[in-house]
Specification:
Length: 304
């Protein structure tokens, strides 16, 4: 793989995704020295548990050291330092940069200021490409892959960046059908359904979850993204739009697999967690191996 930076899922190729799926599988459960002597900076200017900690775990498991900003309030961003200056500074310390930022497009902006390996760990409601790769890895392990499967997204499809990034990857494969299930106010942006249309992939948009359950192979549940709403009142109108309970799961196929990027609030009840259909916490573990694959190979392409 020749790639050194990843700021969107839009320019990933099928060959790259297939390669990364194989790499993640081969790194499963391993500790290596692929990044011995390298420093990984995790620059998180928006809250995170999984993405930051799984990147840091991945870096440690590859033998790298980690420096981090876990809270923008503790960095000079809070004094008004620009993104450009922040990146110019961090690249002087680190060999690889992982950044989460609240502003859509900030990752694409950041790579103007560094040629070093760079990974977008989420830019506002726009993209979360490493999440979409670990989701794809999970779909492969849990359901045998995307081809021929009916894949449904449920919840906040307007602000859910993981939905946007995963839709790009679905377009590299041949799903039987994609179903977007959301309240009308939180529909997936038209740009993504247009992409499916252009690729000749069948899709449907609906607000009705229960009637769709029997035809779904992979159901991707999402949280209503409270932090993206203009007001608390707007959020409260949407909160609780969909709640996946064990009774809902039983409306689906036995082979159904439920994914969620997490964190969840109230959209999957705890009684679902012990059902075979729930892959959410296996998905979390897969994130470490996919991020190991990304750190290793972006670094290898740059430092040759
Ligand atoms: N899935 C995900 O991005 O989780 P965090 O916000 O905790 O990193």
């Amino acid at each position: 793989m020749n790639r050194t930076q990843l700021f969107t899922s839009a320019d990933l190729t099928r060959e790259e995704v297939d390669f990364l799926l194989e790499e993640a599988e081969s790194l499963r459960g391993k500790n290596t020295e692929d990044l011995k002597g390298k420093v990984v900076a995790t620059l998180f200017l928006e809250p995170s548990t999984r993405t930051r900690l799984s990147f840091e775990t991945a870096a440690h498991r590859l033998g790298a050291s980690v420096i981090t900003i876990a809270d923008p309030k503790t960095s000079s961003v809070s004094k008004g330092e620009t993104l450009a200056d922040t990146i110019r500074v961090v690249e002087k310390y680190a060999d690889i940069i992982v950044m989460r930022h609240p502003t859509p497009g900030s990752a694409e902006e950041a790579v103007k200021y560094t040629k070093k390996p760079f990974l977008n760990a989420g830019d506002g409601p726009n993209q979360h490409p490493t999440q979409s790769l670990l989701d794809t890895y999970t779909i492969k392990r849990e359901a045998g892959g995307i081809d021929g499967k009916t894949i449904a997204f449920v919840g906040d499809l307007k602000y859910g960046r993981t939905v946007h990034s995963l839709t790009y990857i679905l377009c590299l494969y041949k799903p039987a059908k994609v179903i977007y299930i959301s309240p009308p106010e939180l529909k997936v942006p038209e740009k993504y359904t247009q992409m499916l249309k252009d690729k000749g992939i069948e899709f449907e948009e609906t607000a009705d979850l229960d009637s769709k359950m029997p035809e779904i192979d992979v159901l991707y549940m999402t949280r209503i993204q409270q932090e993206r709403f203009e007001s608390e009142a707007e959020y409260l109108k949407m909160k609780g739009s969909y709640v996946m309970t064990s009774a809902t799961v039983k409306l689906g196929k036995k082979s159904l697999r439920i994914l969620h990027p997490l964190p969840r609030v109230d959209e999957i009840t705890p009684d679902v967690d012990d059902m075979e259909q729930s892959a959410c916490f296996r998905q979390v573990e897969n994130g470490v191996y996919m991020r190991m694959a990304l750190l290793k190979n972006l670094s290898k392409a740059y430092y040759k």
